[in-house]
Amino acid sequence: MSTLDEIRSYVERNADETVRIAKKIWEYAELSYTEVRSAAELENALEAEGFSVEKGIAGIPTAFLASYTEGSGKPVVGVLGEYDALDGLSQVAGRPEREEIVPGGCGHGCGHNLLGAGSFAAAVAVKDYLKNNGIEGKVLFFGCPAEEGAGSKQFIARAGYFDDVDFVYTWHPSSRNEVPGKSSVAIMGANFIFNGIASHAGGAPHLGRSALDAAELMNVGCNYLREHMIDQARIHYAYSNAGGTAPNVVQSHTVIKYEVRAPKVNQMQELFTRVVDVARGAALMTGTTMDYEITMAFSDYIQNKTLAAVMSDALVEAGPPSWTQEEYRLAGEFFRTYPKSTQLNILEQLAEYIDPEEVERTMLTRPLDSVTRPFDPKETRYESGSTDVGDVGYAVPTVTLHVATAGLGNVGHSWQNTALSNSSIGMKGMLKAAEVMALAAVNTLGKPDLIAKARQELLRKNGGQYVCPLPEYVQPPIGKY
Ligand SMILES: [Zn+2]
């Protein structure tokens, strides 16, 4: 029996349970840091498979670590599971027209129910492989809540849980079967708090020191700063307290929220320091005081190229999910639920991946990704989104796989995505992801040279040690997100 066939048999053995868990988590649709039932579902299933579970790691009640050890417990492979939902995306399963289950309720519009259950299936398949072949090693399943909130993986990394892990394989539901080359950017968020002196704006303005002026001057300063930063960086802001609604009072207290993004974590940190200087200047100009507190930060994410090649080979060997005519038809119906302008946009974007001549015909006949797209190490384009997987990637060699769980051109964070995350399309993609991740993992475990090479690549990136961009004082914002 080939290794692929063996892994397939393990994923198949556990398929009903995997689908059951994915459907349960989909039903629970719990938001960031409140994923109590979703985490328990995975914890119980992992315990039933012989894993030992440490609950509530890194100060987050819904984060956990499940581990299975065979022999010496070396090497160590980690998989990441997410299970948080999104607000406002409640939707009936599999239905290609908008119909909420709970009006204004939550839904799995990013497919994290599939993500968690698929990674569970991969961890169990690797466990079965070690056990049945008497191969030494350790499998870790990291239960990672709140990816859509302020994240959890950076706290788990800061607490040292990834220190002894040799490599991490993870995945995300997608519209394509690929080992993506694209990277995501680093981000830091902070509240800037200005305090001045209240006074009658008409009668005694000279006695007032305006915190609102300070906040506005900070914004003006940052507008000028934008001219002198790298093109790929971003600075965003929002008022969270503009100092009240009375124009006849000099505003004595304002809070403004900033987010700074840049391709690399060190570029982001440098730019953030300049934003703090602008805020200091604004306080100086207005005779107010300024404090800031960092609220969130993620490192940038780049695939470990050494291991991405292994994952890519596993994906090509395992092949794409085999879709039925009914699934193609359903995916087509979902595509037609988008407004015309969105459809045109999608078609344009698809021309980057599909022969432009073929795009329209593909969307009419086979609108589910039916090929596998190998890793291209030369693709270095940055996506302007950010993820807490970035910090895992700075702590341990990490690779993310994409497998189609929705139609080509599917829009993320949409009700369509919620519907498809509890459909035969979603389930099929999830089981395929488990197969590919497990195959890549067992193909890596027996190769110390490969693991060492991946580690070398990591050392060049992090300088020898993971440093969390979050200061120690920043704790997981449980109950505040
Ligand atoms: Zn997601």
What's the CATH H-level homologous superfamily of the largest domain?
Answer: Zn peptidases
User: Which class do the helix and strand fractions yield?
Assistant: alpha/beta
Number of domains: 2
Total beta-strand segments: 12
CATH architecture of the largest domain: 3-Layer(aba) Sandwich
Q: How do the helices and strands line up, and which of them pair or pack?
A:
Elements: H1 3-13, H2 15-28, H3 36-48, E1 52-55, E2 64-70, E3 76-81, H4 112-133, E4 137-143, H5 153-158, E5 167-174, E6 183-184, E7 186-195, H6 211-225, E8 234-241, E9 253-262, H7 265-286, E10 289-298, H8 305-318, H9 325-335, H10 340-350, H11 359-365, E11 382-383, H12 389-395, E12 398-404, H13 415-420, H14 424-445, H15 448-462
Parallel strand pairs: 3-4, 3-5, 5-12, 6-11
Antiparallel strand pairs: 1-2, 2-4, 7-9, 7-10, 8-9
Helix pairs in contact: 1-4, 1-14, 2-3, 2-4, 3-4, 4-14, 6-7, 8-14
Overview in brief:
By secondary structure, the protein is of the alpha/beta class.
Question: Can you give a write-up of this model?
Answer:
There is one protein chain. This protein is of the alpha/beta class and 481 residues long. The protein has two domains: 3-184 and 300-462, Zn peptidases (Aminopeptidase), CATH 3.40.630.10; 186-298, Alpha-Beta Plaits (2-Layer Sandwich). It is 41% helix and 17% strand. The protein has 15 helices and twelve strands. The protein has helices spanning 3-13, 15-28, 36-48, 112-133, 153-158, 211-225, 265-286, 305-318, 325-335, 340-350, 359-365, 389-395, 415-420, 424-445, 448-462; strands at residues 52-55, 64-70, 76-81, 137-143, 167-174, 183-184, 186-195, 234-241, 253-262, 289-298, 382-383, 398-404. A hairpin with an 8-residue loop joins strand 1 and strand 2 (64-70). Helix 1 crosses helix 14 and helix 8 crosses helix 14 (424-445). The N and C termini lie far apart (49 Å). 52% of the residues are buried. The structure holds zinc ion. The site of zinc ion has 4 residues, from loops.
